[in-house]
Amino acid sequence: MSSARQLHTISGRFRMEHGGSLVDPVIAYETWGELNFQRDNGVLLFTGLSPSAHAASSNEDPSTGWWEQMLGPRRPIDTTKYFVICVNSLGSCFGSTGAASINPETGEPYRLDFPVLTIEDIAIAGQRVVESLGIKRLHAVVGASMGGMTAIAHSILFPEVADGLVSISGAARALPYSIGLRSLQREMIRCDPAWNSGNYPLGKSPIDGMRLARKLGMLTYRSTAEFEQRFGRERVPEERQTGDIFGIDFEVESYLDAHAKKFIGTFDANCYMYLSRAMDLFDVADHGGSVEYGLARVGARRALIIGVETDILFPIKQQREIADGLNKNGREVDFRAMPSLQGHDAFLVDMDRFRPALCDFFNCTMNQPGALRTAS
Amino acid sequence: MSSARQLHTISGRFRMEHGGSLVDPVIAYETWGELNFQRDNGVLLFTGLSPSAHAASSNEDPSTGWWEQMLGPRRPIDTTKYFVICVNSLGSCFGSTGAASINPETGEPYRLDFPVLTIEDIAIAGQRVVESLGIKRLHAVVGASMGGMTAIAHSILFPEVADGLVSISGAARALPYSIGLRSLQREMIRCDPAWNSGNYPLGKSPIDGMRLARKLGMLTYRSTAEFEQRFGRERVPEERQTGDIFGIDFEVESYLDAHAKKFIGTFDANCYMYLSRAMDLFDVADHGGSVEYGLARVGARRALIIGVETDILFPIKQQREIADGLNKNGREVDFRAMPSLQGHDAFLVDMDRFRPALCDFFNCTMNQPGALRTAS
């Protein structure tokens, strides 16, 4: 466990939106910056499917975080101004309670006895952390990908809490194509005999299933154009070829393999499936009968909605739908369509485009020439 | 074996382009219509990865073919005018020699001892059938998807043979994104313990691996827009739900599952992998040093090149690249960009758009009002 990680126990019975409950679930989180005297400078950050709460480095944990360039002193979300809280999602496996955790009622890991997880459950669990810190109002709730869904859910379920909403490459509901892709990823895991109906030894997730699922993920997180630019039809050097007739030959195959192998061993397979399924189930229309009515319930007064033109998994029309829905209800909405090549993952990579957008929303000073240098 | 199927044995040693050879390989084919006295009304049709040579029904085999609406009397490729030959690709498993065939030199199935297969090998084997029929000149060579690649290869390797070239949703070379997807499909099969390094009992291809690969295929053969229109977020009726927490819930999951199960048992897994890999390896630049020089070698004088705007697997810019390359060399090129929703598979489904295009190229009469009725 990293020394920056803090744990909040939600005492008692935590009822899940689709039925079932958890006893004393724990949410892992990290914070950066200081809560001000008015307690109104908090920013709650929800993650995508796979990251931990370690969004950025800190004195307590100097290792690079997953959004290192976006978060910190004199960064777009400036931690000399804001008190940032990033939560590891309920259902994940980096300190928060999930399918790999011990069920206190049985003393055994939940595994598939974990109740159905929804994006709303993740949002509610995140809000419990905010409350535990004595915060009633947030400056903003922020998220990308699954986190972009969760931020919307938070703003619907707790309309009085966050003044601002930042939803990046998110969606008001999962499209059938995305559901098909995620369903196939889950089936890859379930087809691996080592999965053993979810009863693999904890810490030993099924390697083949997770590798295949991650490779499909990587193909949907980026764009055809980026693959062409990066890999073309380059072959791997002879010394890295396997000699196998169906082994690794093209650089693109080598890239997918190397990155998928990194993922294996860090993520619990059952947790992955619960989080993946939660995205499929998400539908803002569950709050009010239609996407339009659901978005009307969003409490944020200001919103930054970002989509990427090359996103296959959460196509840009989904972010446009969110922006249009929020616009109708008299909010201040900044919608940005990014021409990034990196598809769904652009928010992690195309910092030159994303930094200014976040910077504008958070009134940072880094866009002014020399600001970064003079301020530090 | 269907009664329309004919077999041609290519006697002797058939040398493969990437090394290795086959002894007396067999090519299965079907024909429709009659060869005219001048022997110049032949049309050679190459298939995509999965179909047999049974492109259309006939007296000998009245079952519906895979391109039934395109091929036949008074159809766009009018078999009262043309003598159409459709070949089952070398390397496939519907009568032609492939990895599931017996190697006459050993008396055992080839399995992974089958040599590396290329699109060029498929084109050459098809040409051997044409020659066996006493045909020196073809009216056209035609193909879609993998067949669109093969038709181009044929026109490069045998520039004197076909006067016309029809390449639908094909490519001058595989893109890294498409290679990544196909590589992952092959890996799904290889990860299935039942694959057993290619040594499964013949006729018993690994079920899980083939089902996963086919599902990914189906997700890449269609478009996000079509999935949305067809399935939305519809749930399967309760009586068809499995009760399993990760079982089939959405209609899109049910659709993928039903169609993938149909595919299993009809296609040999090793053959699938050889054909899939052949597409990855295809690069017109191998003929002349660049795609431009390769396309300059195409012998056809007239060409119809069709692409579909929603195609993920063979994006439309790849067909534009072919059309542009052919245009440079003074050919008569008709390039059509189809706005079909059905993506890569549109040529099998969106007949209202594809029929007129083929009809124009083959000078059929069906587009004239009443032609279909008066002619029959």
Largest interface: A-B, 47 and 47 residues
How many distinct helices of chain A? Answer: 12
Oligomer type: homodimer
Helix content of chain A: 25-40%
Which class of the largest domain in chain A in CATH terms? Alpha Beta
Number of domains of chain A: 2
CATH architecture name of the largest domain in chain A = 3-Layer(aba) Sandwich
User: What would the principal axes of the Cα set say about the shape of chain A?
Assistant: globular
How is the main sheet of chain A built?
Answer: 8 strands, mixed
Mean pLDDT of chain A: 94
- What proportion strand of chain A? 15-25%
Q: Could you give the count of β-strands of chain A?
A: 14
Helix vs. strand class of chain A: alpha/beta
List its salient traits.
homodimer; 376 residues; alpha/beta; Rossmann fold; Rna Polymerase Sigma Factor, Chain: A; 2 domains; eight-stranded mixed sheet; two-stranded antiparallel ribbon; 34% helix; globular; disordered C terminus
Describe the fold and architecture.
Two copies of one chain form a homodimer. With 376 residues, chain A is of the alpha/beta class. The first copy, chain A, folds into two domains: 6-174 and 282-375, Alpha/Beta hydrolase fold, catalytic domain (Rossmann fold); 179-272, Rna Polymerase Sigma Factor, Chain: A. Chain A has twelve helices and 14 strands. The first copy, chain A, has helices at residues 119-132, 146-157, 176-191, 207-221, 224-231, 251-263, 269-281, 291-296, 316-327, 346-349, 351-361, 371-375; strands at residues 6-9, 13-15, 21-23, 26-32, 42-46, 71-72, 77-78, 83-87, 102-103, 108-109, 138-144, 162-168, 302-308, 332-338. In chain A, the strands form four sheets. In chain A, strands 1-4-8-5-11-12-13-14 form an eight-stranded mixed β-sheet, sandwiched between helices. A two-stranded antiparallel sheet of chain A has the order 2-3. In chain A, strands 6-7 form a two-stranded parallel ribbon. In chain A, helix 9 (316-327) links the parallel strand 13 and strand 14. In chain A, helix 1 (119-132) crosses helix 2 (146-157) and helix 3 (176-191) packs antiparallel against helix 7 (269-281). The longest helix of chain A has 16 residues, at 176-191. Chain A starts with 5 loop residues before the first strand and ends with a helix. Mean pLDDT of chain A is 94; it is low at 368-376.
